[in-house]
Amino acid sequence: MSVPDRTTVAIVGGGPAGLLLSHLLHSRGVDSVVLESRPRERVESRQRAGILEHGTVDALREVGAAARMDEKGMPHDGFAFHVHGERIHVDMAALTGRAVMIWAQTEVVKDLIVLRLEQGEPLLFDTEVLAVEKVDGPLSRDGEALVRYRGDDGAEHELRADVVVGADGFHGVARRAVPADAVRTFERVYPYSWLGILADAPPSSDELVYARHERGFALLSMRSPTVTRAYLQVPNGTDPASWSEEAIWDELAARTGLDDGSFTLNRGPITDVGVTPMRSFVAEPMRHGRLFLAGDAAHIVPPTGAKGLNLAVADVRVLAEAIAAWRTDGSQELLDAYSDTALARVWRGEHFSWTMTTMLHRDPDADPFDDRLALSHLQLVASSESYRTAIAENYRGVPLAGEHQSVPEHGQVLS
Ligand code: PHB
């Protein structure tokens, strides 16, 4: 593959947001170059969440990267909360007519990479972006923006582009190209992390279990009919090596158990352990001149509720439409609206993720008042169908701005 020195859209970052954007643009006849700093194996092995909203599933189908997901993904109609030994079921399908799909982000990324390489379109790994320059000022069709990068040959190169998209994550370089006085940031750091495991054990229940217990939060998820994914709330700075396999399973059992004895945890060999800190973060606006930010480069959510990937996908769906409209008829209306359109959904995701997080975790610094509030919140979930409906609507994902939310036939569930 020869690497162009000029493109319409330079996409900084080859994670799910950047890769999917390249495909959405390609299918709209817009060329792009994707630059990713890490080697392909690293991008493909990163363990992240695994819940896809309906809109995310649609986008993968639209670009032709859904065959494995449709074969092996697991549609889920609901989930459960286990609160101090009591079960609350949220029947998402009955309450909202929609399901979600369990399919790991890692697998999504693999399929997007294969498709891009099959198309012979530029996707550069081991390519470190050194600087994003000349993004101030109006849009131009002269490729005025400049991306400087070090290629996998070790040499420095330049890529000129009409538009640069920063999809290079929270620690990426793209956001730093925005002058400090042109961006406002909002942040919350949580006093706990997640210890996450993958295990060769069949899932303990058909649906996901979110548990709140005196000893802290736990989540039981899955990757396949034979692989469990699970998480435990742990103190920040926890060394995963300080937890033995037995201690992890005992703690998961203690936190997810039900008082009536009806729940049994399946155990098995643990194949992967990691610790993830939790953060909420938003940078506004998501555009500066010819630079557009998408996904984690602009916003982070704590993983409770699995909104991160879905928010990133929603960003690039809006952005691809807007760039295509500009290229087709010169109209900048959608691009001018991009930041506001994306941020409305981002803040919904921020609020939902914060709500799920604070309702289900035990803050080690909290006083008893906070604990009582969280329990009352969960009591409301248990007792009110309309409140459960609101949670289910957020969980399965709200429609994109301007998108019609089709109402399924009675009894029909869309996944
Ligand atoms: C996961 O399967 O990794 C997962 C599921 C649900 C969440 C977070 C992570 O809320």
In short:
The protein is of the alpha+beta class. The chain contains eleven helices and 19 strands.
Structural description of this entry:
The chain is 34% helix and 28% strand. It is α+β, with helices and mostly antiparallel strands and 415 residues long. It has a domain at 6-76 and 100-187 and 279-364: FAD/NAD(P)-binding domain. The strands form 3 sheets. Strands 1, 2, 8, 9, 10, 11, 17 and 18 form an 8-stranded mixed sheet that branches. Strands 6-5-13-14-15-12-16-19 form an 8-stranded mixed sheet. Helix 1 (16-26) packs parallel to helix 8. Bound molecules: P-hydroxybenzoic acid (PHB). P-hydroxybenzoic acid (PHB) binds next to strand 14.
Q: What's the helix count?
A: 11
CATH superfamily of one domain: FAD/NAD(P)-binding domain
The CATH topology label of one domain is FAD/NAD(P)-binding domain
Number of strands: 19
Largest β-sheet summary: 8 strands, mixed
State which percent range the strand residues make up: 25-35%
Q: Indicate the mean pLDDT.
A: 95
Q: Give the CA-based shape.
A: globular
Specify the CATH architecture of one domain.
3-Layer(bba) Sandwich
Share of residues in helices: 25-40%
Radius of gyration: 22 Å
Query: Are any ligands bound, and if so which?
Result: P-hydroxybenzoic acid
The CATH class of one domain: Alpha Beta
How far from one another are the termini? 37 Å
Structural class: alpha+beta
pLDDT under 50 segments (min length 5)?
none
| H/E series | EHEHEHHEEEHEHEEEEEEEEHEEEEHHHH
